[in-house]
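pipeline: protein-struct stage 2 | run 1193 | PD-(D/E)XK nuclease family protein
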Amino acid sequence: MNFESLCALEYMAVADRENVQTGLLAWLLGVHSPLSAPVRAEILGRLTGHNLPPVISTTATTEDGNIDLVVTCHHEDGSRGCVAIENKLKSEESPGQLSSYDLRLATRHVHAKIFLSLLGERPHGGTGWISASYADLAEALDAVSQEKSACDPYLWDAREMLHRLIKAVSLVTTDPEYARHVFPNSPKQPSPPEASFRKYVGTLRLRRVLQRAWCAHLGRSLGSLAPGWSTKTGTGARSAAAHLHVARVVGSGTDTFRVGLAVENLALKAFCHPSPYPKQVSASQKEGVAARLVQIHEVLHLDAKVTPSASRKRGFRSYTLVDKSTELPDINMWTALLDDYYRQMESASW
């Protein structure tokens, strides 16, 4: 893979990655696309997993009621149907987000709803959303690349951009030497990644995007979780590293809390915080967090010297279990480590 010859689209995406990628999709699937209407329909069919009725034209609208992209298909029989696409390259799904989109789409004839992310993460909310990855998108574009209407320089650049990003994700999630490069405070590497890869990541500011891909891959490596437990990745504040949470909500009524494990900057923590996060933490919520921290301490058989962090503004507190920030981030090692702690947490009576 050539990481040296970057296209204009990649430089544009540095400023606003998700919006540029979504705008590119709108161009590819909308009325001004170089692709013919049947080819656009084929791409949508490949992403959704089923064929659409014969399409004579499509229109694409970005930010349709906050939905990233809605593609309206006009069919031969005069009917219309739409495909909604929520693009999560960098941001994370917020609570109730997809459910609110379901309500907005309730009055339309919807062919499919696609939750598009770098690794094809499963959505946490909403109904009927199909997960698709950037690799699925690249495969769909490759499948139509021999069509006469696909011979467009911008389309070629779009495919190259996707393939470079997908290759970078593959390297980071399978080779610890490459993964180590995208985490902060990296120790000197005995066999560092090729210079063109390092320059690619630095120039396009992809470190946090690739960190999140690594975290998402780690979460998927755990396999099926017990009912109530789920994985979630995010990037937090602007300067924060990406993280993975393996957690569940416990309690009832107004006293509900989220307990679980967090991987961030190659450190593993066990945490608890009020759920949902309050604007101001009450005394009872602080007491509830403290009580569950005691339970976590017992469940994980932590040493008496291990103490939790001080309460943050929104009530988040944690124990640091393992810090491997100076070691190579091997997915297999981390999967075994995380799975062991998860099994202990899952066995508790919360």
